[in-house]
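Box 3.1 A note on notation
Throughout this textbook, protein chains are presented in two layers. The first layer is the amino acid sequence; the second is a token string describing backbone geometry. Keep the layers aligned when reading.
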Amino acid sequence: MNREKVELRVDALNVIGEVFSPQSDGPHPALVLCHGIPSGNPKNPDDGGYPALAERFVGQGFIVMIFNFRGAGLSEGHFDIMGWTRDLNAALDFICDFDGVDKTRISMMAFSGGAMVALYTVARDERIKALVSCCCPVRIPFVDDREYVIRFIENQRQISISRDMLPVQTPEKIIENFERINPLHYVDRISPRPLLIIHGDNDDLVDPAQAYEIYEKAKEPKELAMIAGAGHRLRLEEDAMRIATDWLKKVNGLS
């Protein structure tokens, strides 16, 4: 397996990522992985993170790109959900031109807040041929509580490596942008490309009923997998990742 560090320039910010690829010659299908909104909680040392997930899919024949949205990890900037859409567009531009990628087979798998960004992007960008949306919210409950939004902004500022360098968004802008990116506004535009929605029936952050809302609004071809006993962190749920792996292999002609 090959690994290559990536540095994208978006809105005068450095967005940091990595591409994992098989050693065999291509062309290979590509998969872009999108993380959710960081909590700032300490990472479990036994959790291999998104690199481990990328390695899983490389083993199935994919070229995989992971990256940190602005304000997360080593990427510059502060949290900005609409800025995340521009980060994802830049990642897509990069992977489309990456050596060995089959441009007709570019898929995406995204989690939580990152899934909101992915749904928004896929609805507008036909380069993406398939999407796995994991634990995606329809609405963010805290946006009705301005004081909570203020605390959220400060928490995200503390997470960012740019915390002492850049202005942050106002609570009003955060609230406006979360409503703007609501998946129910545009998920029906993804068809005729296939969509897989995965959710845990024990998710304590995003009500599982929201997965059904997205599914009902989406057009065919679509599938919904509700994972018994699973919580919000579907990346760590083997049943969820097995379903995603099998589905992505199928829609990309690898099984």
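The two ends are 21 Å apart (CA to CA). The CA atoms of residues 5 and 229 lie 36 Å apart.
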